Amino acid sequence: MRYRLSFSVGGLFAQEAIVAAPRYLQFRDWPAVRAAIDADNLLQSRTVASGRRLSRELVQRLAELTVEELELLLDATAAERGHLMWVAACRRYELVGEFAEEVIRERFLLLTPTLAPEHFESFVRAKSMWHEELSSLTESTLRKLRTTVFLMLREAGLLSDLGEILPCVLSPRVADEFEKRAPSDVRFFPTAAPVTGGRR
Q1: pLDDT tens sequence across 60-106
Q2: Where along the chain do its domains lie?
Q3: Distant-in-sequence, close-in-space partners of 167: CB < 8 Å, separation ≥ 6
Q4: Which architecture, in CATH terms, is 14-188?
């Protein structure tokens, strides 16, 4: 399966999610949500084209969340919203999710809690042995993808400006939602909490 690599648009979209999530809970139709966002330029984009790119990306990520998670998103603290949107990105983009689990969480658990650009680039090079779409990336595209991932990590409160991986404490209600999956989406976070999941 090919990796999706369109995540170079925007960052975590935590603030934008507040615009789109209630409209989905009203319409229960993601195309209708996107049409409403585009029609009224609810993301306040400078151009029609950039607005459409942002709304498409936002809707695709939010569609990865369950109705319960979307409802929680509207009542969430800033930290909880960051954690929910990080999981949305990890679910939408397998490459991001694998980087979170195989590099970020692993380095945290091994007590080497720093993250540098070369860690992402070496991770992508290793994956390119099995994924042709990665081996054909230009240097500028690779930098753009890495910049976006690091931006999302900082916006989610998981990485400091100095490149330190920050321990994550998930709120019980957010952790409960992530534990409904098997394996649990707790695996995407720098935390020593065990990864179980599948609880309904």
Answers
A1: 999 999 999 999 999 999 999 999 999 999 999 999 999 999 999 99
A2: 14-188
A3: 108, 113, 190, 191
A4: Orthogonal Bundle (1.10)
